[in-house]
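Our platform keeps sequence and structure together, in a single record for each protein. Such a record has a labelled line for the sequence and another for the backbone structure tokens. The tokens are whole numbers drawn from a learned vocabulary of local backbone shapes. The remainder of this section carries one protein's record, kept here as part of the documentation:
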Amino acid sequence: MKNQRTIICVFFIFITSYLAAQKSPDLTAHSFEVDDLKEERFVSFTKKQLENSQFALVGEQHGIKEAGIFTNAIFNLAQDYGYKNLCIETDALAAKKIAEMAASGNALTEAKKVYNEFPFAIPFYNNEDDYIMFKNVKRKGGNIWGIDQTFMAQFGMNFKHIINTTSSKKLKNTLLPLKEKTIENYKNAIETKDFSNMYIFKYDKATHKALLSLSTNEEEKEIFHQLWKTKEIYGYNSTKAYYKNNNTRGQLMKSNFIKYYKEAQKKEALPKVIFKLGANHAARGLTRTNIYDIANFASELAIFNNQHSIHYMIAGITGETLTGNPFSPTPVAPFDNTKQLPKEIQEMVPSFTKKYFILDLASLREFAYGKRYSEALKKMIFNYDVLVLVKNAEALNSF
């Protein structure tokens, strides 16, 4: 009889919880709109989240101006909570170059010089707008970390860096013709509209070993190791081994990140970092590419340190984007993401009146069971903490 009462009690609790999930509040009770990220509603909401946090991950739609504006706003608000580091989707050398240019008195002039010599060498940041963010980070004494693979169009820029810094005359003389070859191969790729004509696909094992043997220090060796690793990753993509491509890239991001993190720990026990990455990379848990990416690693690390991480997703509803495609006849393209949004949010879009729509996804988790929300929305609720949608998004201003 006692066991029967226990079973009935458990069943009653289950039914009560299930029904509560079905009666969860609608999204309007968990969202708000602002025209400016300095408005008190947004500021107070964000500051509350930043308390006891170690990592804030901004997952962006690439190519829109508002992603950098948003990241910059988060960086400014995070200063009161000890955040000193901005982590971006480039390799370490590109991040170092960006930091040096941002700290100079003529950042845009220097950035345009690099772009003119090595077009598209630094992914995502061939634009004027994001340098507002980079200059702000450096003015506030911040650091810029780059944890991604080396970009396929970047070999020439990396070779030039070593040419200008190496103490080995033999290494310098070996790299000089290779640098010129990267430029020729890039021009050929653009003319033929064929990525496979870029130098990365000509960089072979014999060349790699020869360059390593001529290296004089760990920095040079690391640059060459990263070149070979990126060749491996792009190779998986070329052969349609997409899981290997995504997973190997994700593992590389983690290993590159932990190098920065351990170095930062020499100065402070608990380094705090704001990430600016593509939306997939900023997702907690299993991503849409079926890997546990750098954001999940950051989430677990924060928990280990008795802190928490904040995961943002920012995207335009409609607007224009800088495509970042060197083969495109027009650098800017219109977009409409409405149909890619969960149906519940699609229904709300016509009512939006301000620039930014902010949805507190984390507050919806207790209701995200049963059939109350679509599977698409439930996935978003558990991958991210905050959704930011931009009305009439603007394209970045390309160099």
Summary: The mean pLDDT is 94. The radius of gyration is 23 Å. The domain at 26-102+123-147+271-390 is CATH 3.40.50 (Rossmann fold).
